[in-house]
Inverse folding.
């Protein structure tokens, strides 16, 4: 009986989640995001050339692939302490050297 | 069967509350960065039938870079538990201890050498998710009770890309026995190996640790983190097993609601979270769980919660859960 209650709760939450996802998906497809994506892509390309990153790897990607997996909100970084924080995160999150450099540039620019 | 419901709330007041020498003398910033004093202050509450708890926590963190390759870092954590049971007076206790106090040496692009007291690299929760400003729900999963939380000794770790689609990360450690209330640890050795598929944003890891005192006991684990490329959705999973103490898993989903089309000012800073976990005791109890704070029998628990960021460094969290213990 209790397991049923749990399953019902989970099912309701899943339905609510799917509803939110559907609402968001329809919202994002109807809004024009092309200029933002183009701007982001150009910026990423510039980062890649400057950091000599491997193909298909950008500073933008490095930030999103690593930082946003743990931190939902990241306070605005202080330039003087960003290097210190990145060194800490390189150790804690096992970032590769290229990722750490790319993220540092990304958050300080 | 015991049934319990739990209502937990928390306010993480400050995440990074102080950067040092803001108004100090001006000098050229060193290549390695500037020393940093940061940390968090939090206040939580936990309501269960017949029991109420208030849970303050303070954790100052110090990061001191030295040159281009060294980092000295430490976190002191003070956690209070103020408990009130029906017809009982308030009782309280404070746990004090160093979460980590370590020296890191970035030997090369593939290897970092760590010495001192560090968070044990087992699974994903202990090292990456347990800080209260990172975790989605304030209650720790059952299986964290059978994983070592801190070690005193040495660790080798690092990460490197293999091709353009996967990063491999590793950590291997040895811990010496220390019998000290502030920085105790067990003699043990272990490792974690992770494969992060960057395009899919999927990381899969395995963990192993062997306790080398009071009987040699192995604990094994597996974990996974997936972040959707298209939706602000995170899914996390961790499993651990110790044949003498028990086994269990937790799975958690978190959805950032920034693009929900109603109540936008609120939703942009909100996140919905769900966590389900189970713990299984071994058929024959081979070892007392002792201080591990594990259930005495099979148990399962579900939590649903919500977080709201007042600012990027100030967060509130509410969760409601049901726990069933056989």
């Amino acid at each position: 009986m209790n397991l049923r209650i749990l399953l019902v709760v989970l099912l309701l939450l899943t339905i609510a989640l799917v509803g939110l996802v559907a609402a968001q998906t329809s919202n994002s497809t109807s809004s024009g995001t092309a200029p933002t994506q183009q701007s982001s892509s150009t910026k990423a390309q510039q980062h890649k050339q400057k950091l000599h990153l491997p193909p298909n790897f950008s500073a933008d990607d490095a930030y999103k692939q690593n930082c946003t997996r743990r931190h939902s909100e990241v306070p605005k970084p202080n330039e003087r302490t960003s290097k210190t924080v990145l060194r800490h995160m390189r150790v804690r999150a096992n970032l590769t050297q290229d990722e750490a450099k790319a993220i540092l540039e990304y958050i300080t620019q | 069967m015991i049934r319990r419901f739990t209502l937990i709330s928390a306010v993480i007041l400050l995440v990074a509350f102080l950067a040092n020498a803001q108004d100090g003398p001006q000098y050229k910033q060193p290549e390695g960065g500037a020393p940093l004093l940061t940390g968090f202050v939090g206040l939580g509450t936990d309501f269960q039938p017949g029991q109420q708890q208030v849970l303050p926590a303070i954790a100052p963190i110090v990061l001191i870079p030295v040159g281009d390759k060294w980092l000295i870092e430490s976190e002191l954590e003070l956690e209070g538990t103020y408990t009130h049971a029906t017809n009982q007076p308030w009782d309280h206790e404070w746990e004090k201890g160093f979460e980590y106090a370590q020296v890191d040496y970035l030997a090369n692009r593939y290897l970092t050498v760590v010495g001192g007291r560090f968070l044990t690299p087992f699974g994903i929760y202990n090292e990456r998710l347990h800080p209260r400003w990172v975790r989605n729900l304030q209650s720790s999963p059952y299986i964290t009770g059978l994983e070592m939380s801190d070690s005193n000794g040495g660790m080798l770790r690092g990460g490197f890309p293999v091709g353009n689609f996967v990063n491999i990360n590793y950590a291997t450690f040895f811990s010496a026995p220390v019998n000290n209330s502030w920085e105790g640890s067990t003699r043990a050795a272990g490792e974690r190996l992770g494969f992060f598929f960057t395009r899919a944003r999927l990381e899969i890891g395995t963990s192993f640790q062997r306790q080398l005192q009071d009987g040699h006991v192995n604990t094994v684990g597996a974990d996974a983190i997936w972040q959707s490329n298209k939706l602000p959705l995170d899914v996390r999973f961790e499993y651990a097993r110790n044949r003498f103490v028990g086994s269990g898993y937790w799975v958690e989903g978190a959805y950032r609601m920034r693009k929900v089309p109603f109540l936008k000012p609120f939703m942009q800073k909100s996140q919905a979270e769900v966590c389900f976990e189970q713990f299984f005791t071994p058929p024959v109890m081979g070892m007392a769980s002792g201080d591990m704070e594990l259930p005495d029998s099979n148990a399962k628990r579900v939590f649903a919660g919500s977080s709201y960021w007042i600012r990027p460094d100030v967060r509130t969290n509410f969760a409601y859960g049901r726990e069933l213990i056989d």
DSSP finds five helices and no strands in chain A. The radius of gyration of chain A is 19 Å.
